[in-house]
Amino acid sequence: MPGSLESRRVVVIGGSAGIGLAVARLAAAAGAHVCIGSSDSGRVARAVSALGGKASGRAIDVRDEASVAAFFAAAGPVDHLVYTAGDWGSFRAPRPVAELDLEAAGAVFAVRFWGALATIKHAAPHLAEDGSITLTDGVVAHRPRKAAPLSTAMAGAVEHLTRALAVDLAPLRVNAVCPGLVLTGVWDDIPEAERDERLRRMTGHQPLPRAAMPDEVARAYLYLMTGTYTTGQVLVVDGGRTLV
Ligand SMILES: NC(=O)c1ccc[n+]([C@@H]2O[C@H](COP(=O)([O-])OP(=O)(O)OC[C@H]3O[C@@H](n4cnc5c(N)ncnc54)[C@H](OP(=O)(O)O)[C@@H]3O)[C@@H](O)[C@H]2O)c1
Questions:
Q1: What is residue 1's predicted lDDT score, i.e. its pLDDT?
Q2: Whose CA is nearest to atom 46 of ligand 1?
Q3: Looking at ligand 1, which atom is closest to the CA of residue 22?
Q4: Quick one: CA torsion of 227, 56, 83, 123, rounded to 10 degrees?
Q5: Any residues with CB less than 8 A from the CB of 48 and at least 6 apart, and which?
Q6: How many domains does the chain have?
Q7: Domain CATH for 216
Q8: What pTM does this model have?
């Protein structure tokens, strides 16, 4: 049935943790056959076992085109592709422009932008015409931070890639989710008191003055997969952060 995930094949790259794992869980609960991928095979195995039922998964390193090609050769037909893969090393070390190591600067784009493009390149031949691709960026696209211009440029590039691919790959639908702060494992290695204080500082002024739970953001991906007349859109799920 159009607009339903029942028995549809959903691939979530970045599905072993955080927002991607929440998307995988909701899609599986909606009756989809879910296949997740990420670079750490142990993490993939643990997530597949937590998802249970019809879920499957395998390792993929989106920085390695051969690994991406092998993943999709093995995955077979795909109805919906969701991309939430993200690494945090380069994001945690913001630099003023005058101190940028230009060779290292490319790392900011490696997983979130180039990894997404490699994934789409190798998934495209397997994607159903009435299917969808949903990418991920973040509110840093719209709210630049001091010493992090590349993060804003990269997130904006994902949004423009989304619009371009919605035209280029039509009638396949291509959209993106732009989350605000989300309580995923990326916050786990910050001591609790410091984390709570930082979250209060970063979200206290928002209309919804808190960070999101992963499931609250995952619902946006479910809509974009099943919203059969929606393409080229960026769905901002940020508790109102970009309004104020
Ligand atoms: N959390 C937030 O507050 C927030 C806010 C705005 C935007 N976002 C965006 O949302 C996306 C997901 O964030 P998250 O918080 O859910 O992150 P997360 O919990 O760290 O999950 C990231 C996922 O990406 C996978 N991954 C990392 N490097 C990979 C690679 N080279 N190849 C394949 N998979 C790889 C990880 O698994 P492996 O380690 O096994 O590879 C993991 O499954 C990111 O693009 C992030 O920028 C997050």
A1: 67
A2: 86
A3: 16
A4: -90
A5: 36, 55, 56, 57
A6: 1
A7: 3.40.50.720
A8: 0.98
